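Homework help board

Subject: predicted structure for assignment chain

Our instructor gave us this sequence and asked us to write out the predicted structure in token form, then describe one feature. I got the tokens but I'm not sure how to describe them. Can anyone check?
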Amino acid sequence: MSAPLQEPEAITPSSTPPKTPKVHTLGNGVRVVCDPIPGLQTVALSVVAGRGARAEGESRSGWSHLLEHMVFKGAGGRSAREIVEVIEAQGGNINAATGYERTSFQIRALAGGLDLGSAVIADLVQRPTLDEADLTREKQVVAQEIAEAADAPDDLVFELAQTAAFEGQPLGRPILGTPQSIGTATPEALSAWRASLYGPKTLVVSAAGAVDEDELLRLAERDFGHSADGDAPPAALEPAHFVGGQRPVAKKLEQANLVLLLPAVGVKDEAYFALRLLAEILGGGMASRLFQEAREKRGLAYAIDAYSETYADAGVLGVFAGCAAADAAELARVAAGEIAGMLKPVGEAELARAKAQLKGAMFMGREGALARAEQAAGQVLLFGRTLDPAEVAAEVDAVTPADLVALTERILAHGRAAMAVLGPKAALKAGPAFEAALFG
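My token output:
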């Protein structure tokens, strides 16, 4: 129930693109989106709050994730066991996830299960029990989750890089928080936090699959249309600023783990799809530049890829690799060289392949009902509307080699990087090697 949320995806249209789902707004500000998918025998319901760990001050770090756990301990008169049993008895399942900018509650159910699913999620979001004894136990559970993440190198290295990239800001703190910060939470304080986090003006109720729009609107009004929690519009989030820096950690491991981050653009930026394509060309698959150069030609790494992580107003271009400690510095220099190589226009064939891969991934990611419901909710929270698949495909296809060069120049103009290296001492030279190769 705690996987970080990802930014919403979009897809390329089929020959007969579906109608873009309409956004309805209830009287108290809750927004509702319905996306029927013909032929399905199941429905997915996602109730998403447009707030997460990024809304936390340092003293409340991890509270959003802790609250997400706590609402499942009892809500609306049901016990923790009854919450899951009543859903599973009808062939469904229930889950939740906390991210930096959103918190999501999700139900998958057989056709006809929307009524119960909506009522249960409404209880979780609006009427949790928040018992003190449960809170004491759940703090211990989350503390174990924090310890587990610290013991997993491929989790810890990303956390270290994130901290370096956005030091001193909510985006630079782990979503799980720390044992100290979650230790200060009380039932009363969590109740107040819930009212601000899950207020009606932050909520989107989104359903996809075997769903009727009139039924969804009726249920949304019944279950979410009367809440006055956090009635005022949510406070604006502080702008994010990429800081950068080194986070080398020597640890007895068989392999070195590297995460190299550069400041990029947010999901609302006009260069968003250029960023997605830049990451695809650099390290999105087996034909990518990093895979071919670092693994196939030089044998420096078994695993290497590039990716983009985007928030509303900020983002990063990242490279992750696992390699032998002795190869870490050279691998970092190769990564720097491939990134700098994007200052030269890519060929049309390479760009076309990247566009096809990106659109293919977007299409495949949208084929599930839950993915569709989550995507629509994310788009409404970011843009106030759902996006036409044909519009999104056109945005991808419109990116030119010159756009990629311009974005690369923009990224490198900051002269900053965030680097985390976790592994044997010999690998710790990778961070300085990356920075020196890229910026001199």
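Reply (TA_rk): Your tokens look well-formed. For the description, you could write something like this. The longest helix spans residues 132-151. That's the kind of observation they're looking for.
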